[in-house]
Write a structure and sequence with these properties.
The chain has about 190 residues and is mostly beta strands. The chain is about 5% helix and about 55% strand. The protein has one helix and twelve strands; from the N terminus they run H-E-E-E-E-E-E-E-E-E-E-E-E. Strands 1-2-3-4-6-9-11-12 form an eight-stranded antiparallel β-barrel. The chain has a two-stranded antiparallel sheet with strand order 7-8.
Length: about 190
């Protein structure tokens, strides 16, 4: 929780002197850095469980129109989950980013991804009536991330920093044969640096 407090404080206290001339506009391929909180749960259910499992993410994006209200994001997220095992999520999402106020924006996003989930302990498989140990590498699964979020653009003469918070629901397929789709959620707090 101390890390979250420091991160949010940094995002809110970043000095931002805005100059009337030469304000940096949106630019493609910013660096996106985030702290992520993972949970194996249905959307908007027991949000505090997300904060037990922390991770980090990095990514970038490219604008699909001249006003940068439609962008394509690409990212990688690693999270630690002691109960279910760690995960590595590769995803791309199409984002609609309407603006409100002078520098605020909202986000609605959806896309596709690949989740490599690692086992938290040794795995076993039934072979010829006996349990045989398997590797801890886990398995890869196709997923569909959907999300909403909000942020604020801090425009300076030489850079633009955009702190944000996002909530993502991730439908993961192929988890096991009994349950074809399982729900995961991510709360993301971070910043886009142009």
């Amino acid at each position: 929780m101390k890390i979250l407090t420091i991160l949010v404080g940094w995002l809110l206290i970043v000095p931002h002197t805005i100059h009337a001339q030469d304000i940096k506009p949106y630019s493609d391929f910013p660096i996106t850095i985030s702290v992520n909180f993972h949970a194996f749960t249905l959307p908007f259910r027991d949000l505090k469980t997300n904060f037990r499992n922390i991770g980090i993410g990095i990514g970038t994006e490219v604008s699909l129109n001249s006003s940068a209200t439609w962008v394509q994001q690409v990212g990688v997220v690693w999270y630690h989950n002691q109960a279910l095992g760690n995960g590595l999520l590769f995803s791309t999402q199409n984002v609609w980013r309407p603006t409100f106020g002078s520098n605020g924006y909202g986000e609605v996003k959806g896309g596709v991804g690949y989740l490599q989930s690692f086992l938290p302990t040794k795995g076993f498989r039934m072979t010829n009536g006996t349990w045989q140990e398997t590797s801890r590498k886990g398995k890869g699964m196709f997923c569909v991330p959907l999300g909403i979020g909000a942020g604020y653009d801090i425009r300076q003469s030489q850079s633009m920093i955009s702190p944000f918070i996002n909530y993502q629901f991730i439908a993961v397929t192929g988890y096991n044969t009994s349950i074809p789709v399982v729900p995961n959620t991510l709360i993301q707090v971070g910043s886009r640096i142009h």
